[in-house]
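Quick illustration, no need to memorize.
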Amino acid sequence: MSLDPKSIRKDFPVLSRKVHGKPLIYLDNAATTQKPTSVIEAESRYYEQTNANIHRGIHTLSEEATAQYEKAREKVARFIGAGVSESIIFTRNATEAINLVAHSWGRKNLKAGDEILLTDVEHHSNLVPWIMTAQGTGAKLRFIPLTTEGELDLSKLDQLLTSKTKLVAITAMSNVLGTIMPVREIIQKARSVGAKVLLDGAQSVPHLATNVTALQCDFLAFSAHKMLGPTGIGILYGKPDLLDAMDPFLGGGDMILEVWRDRFSWNDLPWKFEAGTPNIAGAIAFGAAIDYLNKIGMDNVRDHEKELTAYALEQLQKDPRVHLFGPKNVEKRGGVISFNYGNVHPHDIGTLLDQEGVAIRAGHHCCQPFMRDHGISGTARASFYIYNTRDDVDALVKALKTVSTVFVEAHA
């Protein structure tokens, strides 16, 4: 079964609106995706019919809310191929999930002289927590460089992975370049030196079929809002034995088993990492988003994005003023295209495209070290999802002619 984006678009209310009098062309999916009616209704239905706190009540509404919340956890576990739902921790977002590992695993297991291996294109969310951890433990950060094509330079990997490497924390797909990282190979090599592996799956899980059991990663972090779900809900997957050995990240209600005035014992997995009232409605709505993606099929999601990305690269390259970043081979990249247009500032590109109804991202994309390495302030970025079409790409290309008229030809 192939994916029909024009039919899918009917499920997304926001895509029918206009911006500045023009039809909305939404190409900012790497930042957040739009929500189908089924997800919006799932969240609304919770508040209309079931609103109650979970785990602590014996009345009907609380029991129903608890069942729906835990069912969502089971859906997440199945979606990423986790063996047990206890390995799924609900967080606010992927950023919090990574910080949880940095705090609860990193500060307990890392010491001076140990090394954490990252890549040269990490999002700040998978860089800053490790800078903080290194500063607090004396561990050292090392980085896998990129090739000129924007792929990882694996020729350097054997030199970088040593007995000092205790953790490899890498993005599975770059939010700047779209590069799909060779995580299987990296995980295998990390295993050979006894290092743990955390994958930042914020960009990969929404677009690529993911199976943590097959990958054998130790941790995986991702967010609901980048895969049709609501904001404010994220996921940390962790191998149960590792999670069991980690101390809680936050203290409060629900993460405890017993409390005295001078001590406490903590709850079982996964609840020991979920202090306080969680985003119940968000988790339930995320379950509806997973149902939607399962119905489409993640292989179909990937095939659609490859076709659309190939078309976009082909059309954009026709304009000599467009400078593209990242791999040219669509087998090695996701539906993320970063580009610059002559000497026009990315913010100016984004502003003019918005006037044409085209929503893209512009800036450093939370990846300032990469931008600094390349001597640029940022890029413009178009990113696709299941409801985007070739017509959207054509609208982007047409809108870029406005940029040319205003900034290039006017100053020629």
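DSSP finds 14 helices and 17 strands in the chain.
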